[in-house]
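Hi there,

I know you've been waiting on this one. I reran it after we fixed the sequence typo, so this is the corrected version. Both the input and the resulting structure follow.
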Amino acid sequence: MAVEPLVSLEIGTHTVRVLVGEFRQDGHLLITGIGEVPSRGVRKGEIVNFDAAASCLKDALDSAEEQSRTAIRSVYLAVGGPHIRSQVNRGQIPVIPAGSEISREHVHDALESARAVSIPEDRVIVHTIRQRFVVDEHSEVLDPTGMSGSRLDAYVLAIHGLKNRISDLAHVVAALDVDVADAAFSGLCAALAVMSPEQKENGSLLLDLGGGTTDYLVYADRAIVAAGSLGIGGDHVSNDIAVGLGSIALSTAEEVKVRYGRALVSAGFEETVPLGTRPGQETPAYRRDLEVIINARLSELFEIVREILADQGLLPRLGAGVILTGGGARMDGIVDLCRQVIGLPCTVGLPRDVSGLAVAGEAPEYATAVGLLKYAYRARGERLRPPLIRRLLERLPLGR
């Protein structure tokens, strides 16, 4: 019996993107279909107009179905936005008899204790990610199985979000008679797509630069130690340009940013760029002014990220530096600016081990959707706990 293809869905501020993929026996991903349309009814990854969002989602699904020749019945859903937060939680169990060998059952029980995370009623756990173990308060290890001890502590990183925000996304999908198999944090998905084992082991920061938000995820010593989402993205840069260059239209500001934008200030005082403020009429603006505006907003973003890392003592642990993904990673000069502000090596991350439709492996904006397929593949084979969506819908029935 043929294995049904996996489908990922990313409802972003600028683009709704659907990928259909199949995995070979060696784990290599083959993309068989892409559907993407400009977003409507979405702001900062959250639904603000249900009908508009459902309409553009249908267009993206139809396009992916046609290209892949696959009837899409269920999808895996990327979730993000400023409501996503993370916290470290500890669980503790005694090893009985004291001093005996730690078994897999002990590890399981310690993890279950750590996963009992206390969060507000309006939030739901998206992931509980295993971090590390401590044996008898002094031996910190990734896997304590086979060691001897009297007490075992387990630490997990709990990533959680607002129930209503996540259920709104799932509700739009359900309205089209498509099931949501599960949901995953978009920053985690992007990391699954672009990070190498060496980057995870040496420590690295993933920054997914979207239109309305910037998701982040931190690996240190092969474990995920921090994750979250900031309410700053490319749209803020466009808005700054619209205001700073003389109250031009936001659509014009976006076009100017994409065509002429640069994260570093390098232009001379006489160089200009055209602004199409009226149909058939262009007004020049100084390119240096454009670069100053972009530089200020992106510097602010990277400074916020640096403060988050510094507050958690993570900067010295990131030997592999920063990996940028998302559409914002295409900005000219952004790698150098990130390196200057955060003070770490920086590179643009592209999806790894993917083939088929070339664009999905050659553009940083596809990292989340590709990584979500990899998450789905792993979840299909290792499902040990009920999917987030099933747990959420038990309390928040969506209907059709």
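Quick highlight: Confidence is low (pLDDT under 50) at residues 396-400.

Best,
R. S.
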